[in-house]
Amino acid sequence: MGDISQAILWWDEWQLRILVLGSLGLQFFLLLTAPMRKYTIGGFFRRCIWLAYVSSDALAIYALATLFNRHAKASSACAYGDKASSLEILWAPILLVHLGGREEITAFNIEDNELWTRHTVSLVSQVTVAIYAFYKSWPDGNDRRLLWSAIMLFICGIINFCEKPWALRSASINRLVAMSSIIKGERREPTRWEQCFTEVKWNWRKKEDDAVLSEMDQVQMILSDMSMLAATRGGKAHLAKLAPGADMTRWLLQAFELIYTRATVAYSPVFIACNFVLVPSLHVAAIILFAVSRKKGYADTDVMMTYILMCFTAVLDVLGVFISKLVYKLMSFTKVPALCLTLPEHNLINSVYRRMKPSTGWLYKCAASIGCNFNHDAHSAGSKIRVADFVLYKLLKPGKVKNLDLASYRSLTATNNWALGDLGDFVRGNAPNVRRILCESPFDESVLVWHIATDLCFRVMGGPQSHREVCTKVISNYMAHLLNSRPEMLMTGSRKHLLTQAMEDLEKLLKNCRDKRLAKIIIEEGKSLGSGATDIPIEQEDERGDASLIQEACNLADELISIRDDEKRWKLLYRVWMGMLCYSASMCRGYLHAKALGEGGEFLSFVWLVISLKGAKTLADKLQMPQEQHKEGNAQESPEESDDITAMFSRRP
């Protein structure tokens, strides 16, 4: 019992010190790791950053509550003397600085920006608690230099804490819409201050043609699901041309910073004055005043703790920006891939084959539960980065992209099928399965069928040889990954259960086969899965089950393999997958792309950014802009197709 009593007494004495030091440690952890979110890092490490982000506020608030409880009654004596514990009051404003957080991680998820009102309430309540505890506990006869040191720290803490809800509010989607001068319907002349810091941050310079949208305007608009074509209509403004070798990583990082850091407020006059002039001066003055004050009679432990907290918190506030820059330099020097520059893969047949021989054990299950990926890719990280660079290079090549409808890749009647090009005539006359699945199937089914067929082609004809074939396989696996992990980004309404059902059907086919006969067995068995199923009426289509998708994939693979010209086959596959990738990117909402940036990013967002900036039609453009009128001489619509919906309301009951 004596040991327990001693432990309780020790905890009562050291509890606040441990909490405050823990809060300081979390702030330094976030300072060093938050910049890494702009790069491709592991899911486990990203979860550690999230845990630190959530815990930092909770720990600082709990430390403030503990401080309030210990000093709520100024007349009550502490276990180790009233005067010895009065230095703890100086820790209250330091905890307010910690509650302000780091500039590089204002928000972890996009939903955090919408909670700025909650952070404002927290600001008022925690500042009130800190000031009340300070007022009730500060001894009347204490050194006035300590009092002024505490006041300066309170000013620093309140400034830092106020910046967080301000930045969250400015980064919310509605505010991003309002911030764009194009949305306001005017192109006002920026002030000299804005020109100076916009030039530094966004590499924007005033040009002769003031109608050119700045980078910040364009990024804000596409993140806010605004139509770029509507904004540039009538010649009021137009998009700057992207060079073939343009550094699109910079654009993507700007989008990330707008949503998840304090970039929206970091270059305002108030922020500059506070963070680069006022706050550093106050920190230095507070440390000097504390150093020259009378500290006789205070516990040496409390004096040392106060020095540590004041000095290291000053480093956080004053040198935090420079430390973050060093982290960026280190990540770039070690060639860590930037955000959204890798393509995660999911191969359906490999997943089925592994599920038939599952790995067991508690360690495997624990690792899988925290997000470890055991879907081993067939391509190295380096090759996938090269694939990403190759795709972006192709998209940035000069060409007529403005106002391009990317959905035309599915139309064989269109004269401007941008994806198939000269292969359109071949598909119309020689590939009925390609034509039907490309033009008639729902997009999610089409992705799944083409993924299985592409994989079967590579298994039968041999692995990818040329760089274009590698791109085809990687994009195919990546689109399957989107259907499996982010179906809402692949296309609104995408059905993930199609993938799950297809895996179960394939597992039945492969129950007793060997790996070397895998592809041929799938094709032969799959083609005979639903004999006569193609004649089933549309109203009974749902009763066929998803086994028909396996049959369609096998028929498609058989048709592709039968193409004697290898160059034409792989060219067709490559163009179809490029069409699907770009179409999916254009049809995904900007909000979902912005949300994905905070969760690790997707290569689809990179593609979406490029095609948006080049002027291709996105979802917002298709919803806002009127459809193009058909030219005269086109086939007339049938009476059933041309019925006016107003006729429904003109009939009498």
Automatic annotation (TrEMBL):
Keywords: Membrane, Transmembrane, Transmembrane helix. The chain crosses the membrane at residues 14-32, 44-65, 146-162, 270-292, 304-328. It comes from the Eukaryota. Residues 50-220 form the DUF4220 domain. Pfam families: DUF4220, DUF594. Signal peptide: none annotated. Residues 624-653 are annotated as: Disordered. This is DUF4220 domain-containing protein.
